User: Fold this.
Amino acid sequence: MAQTTDAVVDQVAQLNAARSLVLGDAAFYPQIVNGILPIVGANTKLELRRWGANFLAETFASPVLAVEQKEQLAPNVLQTIREILELPETDIAVLQSLVQASASLYPLVFRHIVNHPQDSKSWETMCEIKQHFLRKMDSFPCPVKLCCAKFLQRVVQVQTPGLISDPRRPEQNETSLAVVPRNHALLSIPNLEAESSGLLDRLLGVFQEETSDPLLVNATLNLLPPLIRTRQSIANKIISAVLDFFPAHHVRPPFTPTVRVSVKSMERTARALLWNILKKHQNHPLAPRMHAYIERLSQSRLEVTDDASRKRGLPNEPTDGLDNAKRARLNAVVPPMLKIPPMAPGPASFDRLFTLTEDTGLSSFDVKQLPFDIVLKIVVPLLSQVHDSTLTQAVDAVRNRYQTITKEQNLQRQQQQQAAAQDEDDDYEPEYQPMDAASVVSEENSAVAEELAELQPDLVSLGPFVLPQPPPLSEEEAGEIGRSAVARVFGMLNASETSPAPAKGQSQQKLGFARLAGSTFDRDAWSVLLARLATRAPAGLANDPQAKGDSVVRRQTTIADSIRETLYRYILEDFRARINIAIIWLNEEWYNDRMQMKSAADQRGESEPDQESEPIVSLNYDTWVTRLLDGFLAYLDGRDIKVLVRFLSEVPEITIAITQRVASLAKDPERVNLCVQSLMYLIMFRPPAREMCLNTVEDVYQKFEESRPAATKVLTKWRPQSAVLETTTNGATEPSVTPSQSEAQPAVTSEQ
Assistant:
C-alpha cells in the first residue's frame, strides 16, 4: 500500500512538471494532453483523476492555446470525460472540473461538427455528456450545480441564433445556430432551437422556486449578461424573468442574520444586472419596468432596515448579573468567591506573586519534578473545568499584586533620589577658598565621592562624555559625499517642477542677476544654487599659491565638474522646457570667468610677475555653451525658432564658435530658414555681434544654395556693398570672392 501511495505521489510530481512546461510554452499543449490522457483516465487513482480533470478544464479555458488545436484535441478528451462519468463518481472536485471542461468544449465541438458533418462520433459523445449532466444536475452538490449552470448557459448561447458580423468570413463569426447550414446532416436547427429554449427555462427556473438557494441565484444572475448582450431574441424573456423575481419572497422565516445577508446579496446582484443594461440601452423597451423594479428593491431594503432598528427580540438565555429572584427559579449556579490571601512577606518573586493558596504543601511543591507530558495531561482537563468567574478573580488578584509592587518600587526610587539631592545640598558650602587650599578641597571631594560610591552606587553620576573626533575623509569619500549632496539638490529641482503654478491673480517678482539663490523655493532658485555651487564655490582656489597641490582643490574641482555634467544631462533631457535653466547656468559661468580674469589682471598689475609665473585661469563658458548647442541643435526643427532665438538672445556672449554651429543648421534644407532667421535676430538686436553674424550669413550664402533667397534679403539690408551680392548681380553662376569676406571685415571674437 505504501508503495502504491509513493508511486501516485511521484506521478503527480511528474504531472506538475508537465503542467509547468505548458504554462511556460503553449506549443507543448497537444503533446502533453495526448500523453496524460491514459494516465488520468477512468482506470486510475482518484488523485490522478482529480489532477487530470483540473488540467483539462484549465487547458480548454486557456486563451493562449489556439482554437484549431483545441478542436483537434477535443475528440480524445471527450472520450476520456465520458469514461470517467460512467463511473459511480462522487468526488466533487472531479465533477466540477469535468463540467467546466465540458462547458469550454461544447462551442468547439459544435463548430467542428458544423465544418465536419462526417464526424458523428464526436457529436454523439458530446450529446451523451450533455444528457448525463442534465439528468443528474438536480442531485449534484451545490458546487457542481453551479458549474452545471455555467454549462447550461454555454449550451443556450451556442444553440441560439446570433448575429453574423461578416457573411464572407464564417470562420470569424461567433459560434451560434446562425452558422449551421439548413441542410446539415447531423444538426437539426428546429430541434436545437427547441432544446435551447427548454434549457433556458430550466436555467431561469431558479427565479420561480418557492425557496431559492442564494448561491445558485447569484451565479445565475452573473451568467445572464452574456446572453442578454449577444442573443437579442431571448434578451427580453430573460429580463422579464428577472423582473418577476423578488428575493424577499423566496426565503423562509425565521429571518436570521444569515438570511438577511443572503437576501441583500441577491438584491444587489439583480440591481447591478439591471443597471448595466440601462447604461448601455437607455431607450430599452423595458426601461420603465426596470427602474420601477430597482426602486422597489431599494424600498424593501429600507423597510427591512427600519424594522430591524425598531424591533429587538428578547434574549434566548439569561444574561449575566442574575438577581436573587431569578436564581431560585432558573437554578443558576453562582461560583463561590475566592479567598485571596495577602502576598507572602519577603522580596518580590514570581512564585510569591502567583501563589493564591494558603496550603503550605501546595506552595512548597516543585512542579519541575513532573515530566512535561504528565503536566499537560493534568493541566488541560483542569483548565476546561475552571469556571470563568473563578479564573477572572484569580487574574484580577495577580494584577492587583503586580500593580501594588510596582507602585512601592517607584515610591522607594523617588525617596532615594530626594535623599541623594538633599545630601548634595548639604555638602555644598559657598565659602571663599584660598588658592592654596585647592589640593585640600580636591582630596575632600574624592573622599566624599568614594563614600557615595560605596553607599549608593546607582546614584553616582557619570563624568562628562566627549565624542571622539571623526577620522579624516579620504578624497574619494569626500567626492562621494559631495556627489550625494548634489543629487539631493537635483531631487529638489525635480520636485519643484511638479509644484503647482501660482494663482492667476498673484503677482510674481522677477529677481535680477544679484538675486539670492535661496530667496524662493522654485525651480529657478534651485538652478541658481546649483550653478553657483559649480562656479563660485571653487572659484579662485586653483589660483591660490598656498593651496596648489592640495587635495581639497582637486576635490572641489571634481565636484564642480560633476555638477556641470549633471546640469548638462538634465537640460538635454527636455531642452525646450528647461532652456531657462541653461541660460541661468551660462550667465553664471560667464560671470565667473570674467571675475577670475579680473582677479588675474589685478595680480599682474600689483606684482608684475613674468609670463611663466602668471596665474592660470580656467574658463568654462566657451566650453559648455558649445556643448549645449551641439547637444540640442540636432533635435531642432523649423518650428523651434522661438527656442533657438531665446537661447541666442539671452546668453551673455556670442562667439565665433556659436555662429558656426548655428550656420551648420543650413546643411538641412528644412532648417535653412531657422538658421538665417536666428542670425538675422542677432544682427538686429545684438549690435556687438553684428559683424560676426553678417560674416556667417555670407558663408552660409556661399556654401548652401537653398539659403540664398533668405540670406539675400539680410545682406541687401545690412551689407549692400558685399562682394557676394555684387557677384550675383553681375550674373556669375558660382559666387566667389577673392579675399574672404570674413578676412575683409574686422574680426570680432567676443561680445562685451
